Amino acid sequence: MSIKLSDVLKNADKASPVDSAVSEYEEQFKSAERGGSDDEQSDHKTINNLYYDLVTDFFEYGWGKSFHFAPRVPGESFKASLARHEHYMAHTLGLRPGMVVADIGCGVGGPLMEIARFSGARIVGVNSNAYQLERARKLTDEAQLTDLADFIHCDFLSVEAPDESFDAAYSIEASCCAPDKVSIYNEIYRLLKPGASFGAYEYCMTDRFDETNAQHVRIKADIQLGGGLLIIDDYQTVNDALRTVGFEVLETRDLTLQTGPSIPWYQSLAGSGISFASFRSSRIGRSVTHGTLRVLEALRVVPQGSVRVAHTLNLCAVAMVEAGRLGIFTPMYFVHARKPA
Prior knowledge:
The chain is α/β, with parallel strands linked by helices.
């Protein structure tokens, strides 16, 4: 395992001060939570970039190229469930050849490539993190999908594209990184042509979340710190924001609430009943990775501070499992909306 892990981490600059970057991230996060700056958008941009510079290699190692969760049924592999989740978004939005579609917060391009293959539409990935876009361009080129993919390096609250540029837009567990839903939805609304659709899988606290329950509050805080999120909204905030900017809301529902036999969305993090393919993301796999990193860091094979990054991510993973079992959090509140014609 150490060889594969070092293969992933060698993408990072070994001379970079990862340990000091973790400290800066933690300080910036705590400062923003305390209201240390009057510019919320700047706070979020700084934290997002610090966070994803640190965690992208770990995400890709443990999760693959699609950084999201998905509904899953017995007999379905983890990888297949991610692809089905992406296909569902493309199908719901009616994506097809000839359309130009915005992927808001595209990560390293995993969903973008899958949706481009599935739909034949041209997908434009929007991302403010330079390292993730570097990876996305490389992976897209390797997949020979450059004719169906493009990328814009910018803040997704101020996308460098004219009004009414896109035939559709989607965001897969990414708009949670915005300072507020009205800001991000307003920018997406601007980018869409009249009559175009928008879909998203949103992080939300569910109706079961109790802000007076100390355990609930602690779990939410751990998800936020470990996930680089200053806010996690509830259903109503998301719905109200869509309508505030002018969207017609066509459908909203929590996709974690499956009918019939299903595998909980957090199972890949919990550790029981795992397959070899999902080992790295499991509780046991994370523990093995953590121990391996300690050795590699001591030998200076990986950057100093790698263990601290893994610890932060593990904090989030443990909290997500707790939140999932309590039913107080969902990573896939599905929204489908349309800009009036």
